[in-house]
Amino acid sequence: MKLWVLRHGEAEPYGSRPDSERALTTHGREEVLRSAARLMGKPVTAIYASPYLRAQETAQLVREALGFEPEIRTVDWLTPETDPDKVAEQLVSVSDVLLVSHNPLVGNLLSYLQHGAGYPPEKVSTAGLAELEHNELLIGSMKLNSLKHP
């Protein structure tokens, strides 16, 4: 089983809009396209994304870059403050998927899947892409194959 976790690209700064409505910047779009290139030829079977605008834009850019036909699966369990255990529960019956989300969830999830609870989060920049692997999803035992930043 492989799992890819992608943090959204750089977004507009906080302002008058709610956090969930912040869009990607031009730089953020460029970052995402560089990370999407690393997914070329990978056996991605589904793309799951947070409902937040910047994650949706990130997922769509990746989908287009890969020529990925299936629709993006928008899920509430990939929002920034979700507990990593809740995400892990959703991944039990899937494999070879890409998750598009936000910090602090991304950093916490990567740490949780590798080490279990109680470890510091991985540091993941905007459009950072992680690849994890294991025979099955076991909390604390997945191997981080790579963590690339654009």
Structure, described:
There is one protein chain. With 150 residues, the chain is α/β, with parallel strands linked by helices. The chain has a single domain (2-148), classed as Rossmann fold, CATH 3.40.50. 29% of the residues lie in helices and 19% in strands. It is built from 4 helices and 6 strands; from the N terminus they run βαβαβαβαββ. It has helices at 26-37, 53-66, 84-90, 105-115, and strands at 2-7, 46-49, 73-74, 97-101, 129-133, 143-148. The chain has a 6-stranded mixed sheet, sandwiched between helices. Helix 1 crosses helix 2 and helix 3 crosses helix 4. The longest helix has 14 residues, at 53-66. The two termini are 24 Å apart. The mean pLDDT is 95.
